[in-house]
Specification:
Elements lengths: L3 E5 L4 H17 L2 E8 L1 H11 L10 H37 L3 E7 L2 H12 L3 E5 L13 H9 L3 E5 L7 E5 L4 H17 L2 E8 L2 H13 L2 H7 L1 H34 L4 E6 L2 H12 L3 E5 L13 H9 L3 E5 L28 E2 L4 E5 L15 E5 L4 E2 L1 H6 L5 H17 L4 E2 L1 H12 L6
Helix pairs in contact: 1-3, 2-3, 4-5, 6-9, 7-9, 10-11, 13-14
């Protein structure tokens, strides 16, 4: 599932947890670990320049200043490099002692920028980062480096807050493609680490009530008669609210079927309220070691880097958080895809689309017209290596309606695997589309 894992190393408490969890994942998945530390010598050189005006008069001569600058630059560069190598020595020793495949990487520059560039360029399956770094002052906050990286990469990210995978995992379910990816990851973790698994789904009927109460206060009598406020309120309470409950229960039922196919026990929990608030309350009560949640939710729009519910869970959850579905639903031309972090120098190639994981789930979606009926899914687990998508091929599939796009892409991947293709190009997409259109069972 995760064959190549990037671990951010900075010698902080959370960083050491990252190394320990990375080793556990490597043992289970056979992963190659890459420990990386980034140091910024130029930052210290700029600060030294800023302090020059405050030096005693005997040091204000330009030749003396230049000599001091060179000496300072040499000491800082050498010192920071030695310190950084020491951080990586800890990572290397732990990996050697655990006999897991590993390598280390030392980069110079702005920490979050270099991490993003490295992850985007070298096709990692998973990024492991501490929720905070060496400068942590408040255990309840999220570090700036972690937040910046999480927002700008597509890869699955494990944000580490403790050093354990034990007891229980909780997966948030809302029917989105990213949520389905989360369920697949949750099943793998439950199997490999012997975790109990809870699936939680939260619908929010309260928003409609609040909105209607707000509307009622501003509507004139005439407008209220046109709007038929009482009838609309009854419609929401008796039909829409109950329909929401049925839909979200359907999402849980789908997760249950996936778990049954994988031979994993799962407990389903349906709640109503503000999603992040209810999930945090549930997590605080159950105390799992891992919360798994899609990077974005069912209301995702093009360009959204992370959903509001996911962002709140990432900040407030007391346990480790795995963000899944990063490669799924990332639209070319989005704000993220067009950010400066995507535009690499000419000698660095932007990564093509990579389908996540060893377990590829082929989903057949049936759109049901009846009110409140959940989308049904059939799940077939297929083992195989990740398939690489070229950017042109991925763009070609963006014209497919969003509610079946993921399913079509999965069928194209299956076609590529069946025919021995390692990379999906526009030619492979055309071939697969011809096959799919001729499949009577698909129609």
């Amino acid at each position: 599932m995760y064959k190549k894992i990037f671990i951010a190393v900075d010698n902080s408490r959370h960083s050491n947890h990252c190394i320990d969890l990375g080793i556990e994942l490597s043992r289970k998945f056979g992963s190659h670990l890459v420990g990386c530390h980034v140091y910024d010598a130029s930052l210290h050189q700029r600060r030294f320049r800023d302090m020059e005006k405050g030096l005693p008069p005997q040091y204000q001569d330009e030749s003396v200043l230049q000599r001091q600058r060179d000496l300072h630059a040499s000491l800082i560069n050498q010192g920071l490099k030695l310190i950084s190598e020491s951080y990586l020595d800890v990572f290397n020793k732990k990996c050697r002692d655990a006999s897991v495949p590993h390598s280390s990487l030392l980069l110079e520059g702005k920490n979050y920028y270099e991490i993003i560039r490295e992850v985007q360029t070298n096709h990692y399956d998973l990024v492991i980062m501490g929720a905070q770094g060496l400068a942590a002052v408040d255990a309840g906050t999220l570090g700036s480096v972690c937040e910046r990286v999480v927002r700008r990469i597509k890869t699955d990210v494990l944000v580490v807050k403790n050093d354990r995978f034990e007891g229980k995992a909780v997966v948030a379910v809302d029917g989105s493609t990213q949520s389905v990816a989360g369920v697949k990851s949750a099943l793998s973790f439950a199997q490999l680490f012997g975790l109990k698994l809870d699936a939680v789904s939260v619908f929010d009927p309260h928003y409609h009530r609040v909105a209607f109460e707000s509307i009622a206060k501003v509507l004139s009598k005439e407008a209220g008669q046109v709007f038929r406020f009482k009838d609309q309120e009854t419609l929401h309470e008796e039909i829409i609210d109950k329909g929401l409950a049925k839909i979200y229960q359907g999402h849980l039922d789908n997760a249950g079927r996936m778990a049954g196919d994988a031979g994993v026990g799962i407990t389903s929990v349906l709640m109503d309220g503000k999603p992040y608030d209810q999930i945090i309350k549930f997590v605080s009560k159950e105390q799992p070691s891992l919360l798994i949640v899609g990077r974005t939710g069912v209301h995702n729009t093009n360009g959204l880097d992370i959903g509001s519910t996911t962002e709140n869970l990432l900040r407030l959850s007391p346990c480790n958080v795995l963000l899944t579905g990063g490669n799924v639903g990332m639209e070319p031309g989005s704000a993220v895809a067009e950010s400066g972090f995507q535009r690499m120098p000419a000698n660095r190639k932007e990564p093509a689309y990579t389908s996540p994981g060893q377990l590829h789930v082929e989903n057949r979606f049936e759109e049901v017209a009846a009110k409140g009926t959940a989308v049904q899914q059939e799940h077939t687990v297929i083992a195989g290596d990740p398939i690489i998508w070229t950017q042109e091929a991925q763009t070609q599939t963006e014209r497919i309606p969003s509610f079946i796009r993921a399913m079509i892409r999965q069928k194209i991947e299956k076609y590529a695997r069946d025919h021995g293709y390692k990379e999906i190009t526009t030619r492979v997409v055309d071939e697969a589309k011809g096959k799919i259109m001729g499949d009577v069972s698909f129609h």
